[in-house]
Amino acid sequence: MYVSELFRRGIVLPLDEVAEASVRAYVVSETTSVRYLKIPSEELFETLWRLGLFREINARCGTLLDDYEEEMVEPARLGAILLAIDSVAKSGVARQPSVVNFLGQMRALVQEASDLSRPLLFVL
User: Fold this and answer.
1) Distance between CA 108 and CA 104 in Å, rounded?
2) Which of 8, 104, 107, 118 is deepest in the core (most CB within 10 A)?
């Protein structure tokens, strides 16, 4: 099945080489070895959008994270995502508990991807 069918509105970390190949081909199954951070609600997605999280990642990584798009971010750019998360988190506008919680989970996922030298796939 296509990545966007299984992992809509979230971030996918392939955990091994087979999973990475599947994710890069945009064809996965429920048994593909990934860690998936779902954006749990449309309201949270819209809040993250208004806070400029995806705009900040795009500016730092040269990506085009956009609504209804899928974008792979290579391991070399993961440090820039951490800086983007920290920038948004420290801006003072990210005070809602759901936002703070999600940014913390996202930061942990990005750090894990960096530790594993694996890309992240954003499915927005």
Assistant:
1) 6
2) 118
In 3D, which of 36, 41, 120 has the Cα closest to residue 85? 120
Task: Tell me the sheet residues that pair with 11.
Answer: 37, 122
- In the chain, which residue ranges form alpha helices assigned H by DSSP? 3-6, 17-24, 42-51, 53-61, 78-90, 97-116
- Token pair, residue 116, equals 């594993």
Structural domains in the chain plus CATH codes: 3-123 (3.40.1760.20)
> 50-107: per-residue pLDDT in tens?
999 999 999 999 888 887 778 999 999 999 999 999 998 887 666 788 999 999 999 9
CA distance 79 to 110: 8
Residues 6+ apart with CB under 8 A from 20: 14, 118, 119
Residue 41, C-beta contacts closer than 8 angstroms, at least 6 positions apart: 98
